[in-house]
């Protein structure tokens, strides 16, 4: 497959209804569905289950079978993981970086990919694959909003999903930026909360996060 013929499905159609994309780390698959249900009860019906744990494929399968949540797979760094995630039922893939082999699997299997970028060269490569919605990671550590404002000049056609270092306290400016499509993070569904079975806490944190996002957007439109 030549470089200029690689056409990867973009995640953009999934994001208008999902302004927040929680990053979920599942250690025990039995917690998968309760976690997804807790997020949904708080108004968040999308989840990126990371492939950082052995339980991830089964967790994705269970959430996909339960329904009610658009479940994707995160931290996908190679073709083997990409195929395993899709086989488990992942509706989208998220990568911390720009991997051609992951992009090839996404293209071949028709599954949207949200790849991580942090440099202009990576953005140019992603654009050549047909992608215009990209993950900016790690967002705060890589310079935050000022960097994305600089990128917005030459890359006006690109929308970003920042992840890393964003939480309730600094959510508003990210939510109000015109080049931001959605926001990723784990503050509303931490690993500690899942392992403690604090599903009520996840619902409350999700409600707070969504309310903060909506308030920021309303303030922008005044």
UniProtKB/TrEMBL annotation:
<dbReference type="GO" id="GO:0008675">
    <property type="term" value="F:2-dehydro-3-deoxy-phosphogluconate aldolase activity"/>
</dbReference>
<keyword id="KW-0704">Schiff base</keyword>
<dbReference type="InterPro" id="IPR031338">
    <property type="entry name" value="KDPG/KHG_AS_2"/>
</dbReference>
<comment type="subunit">
    <text>Homotrimer.</text>
</comment>
<keyword id="KW-0456">Lyase</keyword>
<protein>
    <recommendedName>
        <fullName>2-dehydro-3-deoxy-phosphogluconate aldolase</fullName>
        <ecNumber>4.1.2.14</ecNumber>
    </recommendedName>
</protein>
<dbReference type="InterPro" id="IPR000887">
    <property type="entry name" value="Aldlse_KDPG_KHG"/>
</dbReference>
<comment type="similarity">
    <text>Belongs to the KHG/KDPG aldolase family.</text>
</comment>
<dbReference type="Pfam" id="PF01081">
    <property type="entry name" value="Aldolase"/>
</dbReference>
<keyword id="KW-0119">Carbohydrate metabolism</keyword>
<dbReference type="InterPro" id="IPR013785">
    <property type="entry name" value="Aldolase_TIM"/>
</dbReference>
<dbReference type="InterPro" id="IPR031337">
    <property type="entry name" value="KDPG/KHG_AS_1"/>
</dbReference>
<comment type="pathway">
    <text>Carbohydrate acid metabolism; 2-dehydro-3-deoxy-D-gluconate degradation; D-glyceraldehyde 3-phosphate and pyruvate from 2-dehydro-3-deoxy-D-gluconate: step 2/2.</text>
</comment>
């Amino acid at each position: 497959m030549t470089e200029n013929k690689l056409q990867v499905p973009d995640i953009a159609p999934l994001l208008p209804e999902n302004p927040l994309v929680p990053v979920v780390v599942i250690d025990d698959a039995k917690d998968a569905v309760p976690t997804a249900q807790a997020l949904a009860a708080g108004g968040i019906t999308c989840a990126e289950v990371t492939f950082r744990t052995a339980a991830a494929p089964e967790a994705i399968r269970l959430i996909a079978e339960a329904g009610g949540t658009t479940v994707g797979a995160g931290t996908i760094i190679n073709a083997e993981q990409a195929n395993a995630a899709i086989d488990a039922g992942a509706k989208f893939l998220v990568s911390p970086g720009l991997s051609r082999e992951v992009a090839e699997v996404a293209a071949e299997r028709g599954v949207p990919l949200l790849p991580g970028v942090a440099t202009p060269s990576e953005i140019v490569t992603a654009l050549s694959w047909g992608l215009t919605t990209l993950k900016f990671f790690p967002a705060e550590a890589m310079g935050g909003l000022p960097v994305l404002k600089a990128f917005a000049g030459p890359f006006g056609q690109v929308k970003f999903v920042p992840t890393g270092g964003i939480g309730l306290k600094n959510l508003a400016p990210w939510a109000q930026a015109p080049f931001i499509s959605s926001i990723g993070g784990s503050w509303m569904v931490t690993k500690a909360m899942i392992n403690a079975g604090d599903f009520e806490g996840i619902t409350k944190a999700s409600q707070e996060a969504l309310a903060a996002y909506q308030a920021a957007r309303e303030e922008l439109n005044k």
